Amino acid sequence: MAYVGHTPPGWLGNLSADQETKLQQMWNIVLVLLDAVSLGAPEQPIENQTGEAGKPAAALTRTDTLASANGTNAFTAHLAQTLKETGLTTNEIKSLKDVLHDTTAEELRAGLLSTAKNDNPDALLLRFLRARKFDVGKSFNMMLRSMLWRIKQVRVDEKVLLTTELDALRETKDKSKSHEAKEAEGFLSQMRMGKCYQHGHDKQGRPVGVVRVKLHKPSAQSTEAINRFILHVLESTRLLLVPPVDTVTIVFDLTGFSLSNMEYPPVKFIIECFQDNYPESLGNLLIHNAPWIFSGIWKIIKGWMDPVIVSKVHFTNSVKDLGNFIDVDKIPKELGGKEDWAYKYVEPVEGENALMEDTAARDVLQAERLKIGEDLLRETSKWIKAGGEHNKEDVKALQSKRDDLIEQLRVNYWKMDPYTRGRNALDRTNVIQAGGKVDFYPSEVVAPVEELKKLDIEQVEREEVKDPIYTPDLSDDFPASQCERVFSTVMTQHIENGVLSAEQRLQTYKSEDDAEQR
Predict the structure, then answer these.
(1) How far apart are CA 502 and CA 455, in angstroms?
(2) Residues in domain CRAL-TRIO (predicted)?
(3) Number of other residues whose CB lies within 10 A of the CB of residue 254
């Protein structure tokens, strides 16, 4: 579904001159932090462009960046001076120095690309700018802490994306590690019951998440399992944001809610995630069918929320109320709507994450991503410099180059995705598709395997076989439908990423035919 409505002020595509200047100023600090000069970025001073008595921003010089270039602390005197000019206090700057004490510029470059994922980097910076009312210093402070939370504290890539649902299923079966098995079961049980699911769009084209609060039983899972589930859902939901849509609508369904379902720590964790680490990601928060006992709870929860978040909260008591935000024919019958759809968890299957074992292909794509990212930093530095010189033609040309590099980053992310992220229920039901396409109403056929056969068999004699093909272990009780899903999904991704030769593809098809017959 396409985005409906006008792009709001402060979003990419609708920036005032002052907001664009603030975006450039934010990028300037990022360039200093990431030691862009060592990558060949311009060393000339960059004008502040505040519209006030414009004082020059700190020049991008090599003097203070040698430490980070040599792989030591990313915090430099140059960065401190740049932050001081944004209005950050001495204590705020010292605090940032402390959190950067064991972090290098190289780590932060990779961290920025990891944080951006499939997002437009400009849109990512604008999230933090809007969250701090375009105060550049405070916005940078917030973004840096969020990056460090992802790459140092929570380690989202390793702990959330690489630790897959299939891994959890395997852990539940390993009785030699009882604690790990219990934690994995606690995580998976929340997926299976559908405590939270994503389905459909609201009237503005935002993906909709539904939290069924009555299914939560305090102490049924550990804090670790609950937080893992929350982060898993948040990261999965990010993949559903297709530009220009960059916010979600969440329905907290309190139908059947009682005090026995209430647990404050998970609620507080969700609020902190949205406010500190996924800012400006919430479009609407619909609290549906709240009983009278919730009024006292709401007073407590509201106190934890930023006023901006509170302004997005709406109480709904009927399907008519929900219909103000979501078309009634897109509201599941469970919520009183007309859509004949119900959540059902599709279990992981062996082989669905086969590409994650291909570390060579992953490393090639990651190196490509880092190269594109470095090119973007160089062009961004030139873009800011041209803006400081009020050279409109150069600004336009450089923005075009940046747009091209940003698109390359997006394409690269989706090529790399199957090598760095475990498949989830949205992948298995074909909601998330190759290239980042999202379809909440996909056909039952996962991939056009027969068409791929026709295109590839002709090339078998002309191509050289280089690597053995991965073939999942197919036991007699392995369902044919799951065989098809594993083969078509995994091998289509291999083909799209240029990993398989034609003969390997033919071998894949033959294996698939055998599986279907079995």
Answers:
(1) 9
(2) 180-343
(3) 21
Q: Are residues 172 and 133 in the same domain?
A: no
**Three-state DSSP class for residue 288:** strand
CA pseudo-torsion sign 284, 290, 296, 301:
negative
Residues 291 and 399 reside in one and the same domain: no
Helix/strand/coil for 175: coil
Residues 322, 192 share a domain? yes
Separation between Cα atoms, residue 497 and residue 507, nearest integer Å: 18
Task: Look up residue 260 and give its amino acid.
Answer: S
Whole domain around residue 492: which residue ranges?
443-517
Contact yes or no for 115/146 (Cβ under 8 A): yes
The answer to whether position 55 is within a domain reads yes
Predicted confidence pLDDT, tens digits, the chain (518 residues): 556 678 899 999 999 999 999 999 999 999 999 987 777 666 545 444 333 333 334 333 333 333 344 455 789 999 999 999 999 999 999 999 999 989 999 999 999 999 999 999 999 999 999 999 999 999 999 999 999 999 999 999 998 998 999 999 999 999 899 999 999 999 999 999 999 999 999 999 999 999 999 999 998 999 999 999 999 999 999 999 999 999 999 999 999 999 999 999 999 999 999 999 999 999 999 999 999 999 999 999 999 999 999 999 999 999 999 999 999 999 999 999 999 999 999 999 999 999 999 999 999 999 999 999 999 999 999 999 998 888 899 999 999 999 999 999 999 999 999 999 999 999 999 999 999 999 999 875 444 344 334 434 443 333 334 444 444 444 444 444 455 555 555 555 555 555 454 445 445 444 555 554 54
Task: Pick the closest to residue 60 from 49, 71, 73, 76 (CA basis).
Answer: 76
* CATH code, domain with 229: 3.40.525.10
Question: How many other β-carbons are positioned within 10 Å of the β-carbon of residue 168?
Answer: 23
pTM for the whole structure = 0.82
What would the 3-class secondary structure string for 373-434 be?
A: HHHHHHHHHHHHHHHHCCCHHHHHHHHHHHHHHHHHHHHHHHHHHHHHCCCCHHHHCCCECH
Q: Name the residue among 322, 265, 317 with its Cα closest to residue 291.
A: 317
CA 283 from chain centre, in angstroms, equals 16
| Dist. CA 65–CA 34, nearest whole Å | 9
- Ramachandran area for residue 59 (φ above 0: left; ψ -120 to 50: alpha; else beta): beta
Distances (CA, A) of 173 to 25, 94, 329, 428: 52, 48, 41, 21
